[in-house]
Specification:
about 35% strand, 5-stranded antiparallel beta sheet, 5 strands, 2 helices, alpha+beta, single chain
Length: about 90
């Protein structure tokens, strides 16, 4: 899976969980749009304006402790085999 495919699946999961919870107004759906930001060491996946995942050059996916700081204790797998928790969304 590429980083673009991963970001798209995260966005689809976030939006699906909002629809399931009955919170799928335009503002909420717009705040689930993912953005990919490449950095020197990490690629960041933002959901809305918040950082959600950071991917290292080896393809390991980590959560975010603070913006630009990966939480190395919370690994979500790799791009080749990501955890399903990545795609469940906040309300899933």
């Amino acid at each position: 899976m590429t980083i673009k495919q991963f970001a798209k699946r995260v966005q689809e999961g976030e939006q699906a969980s909002l629809r399931k919870a009955g919170m799928a107004c335009k503002v909420n759906l717009d705040n689930c749009i993912t953005e990919i930001k490449s950095g020197r060491k990490w690629t960041k996946i933002n959901v809305g304006r918040a950082g959600k995942f950071m991917i290292n050059p080896d393809g390991y996916i980590f959560g975010v402790k603070a913006y630009g700081v990966p939480n190395l204790r919370h690994c979500y797998g790799t791009l080749a085999n990501p955890s399903e928790a990545c795609f469940q969304g906040l309300w899933g």
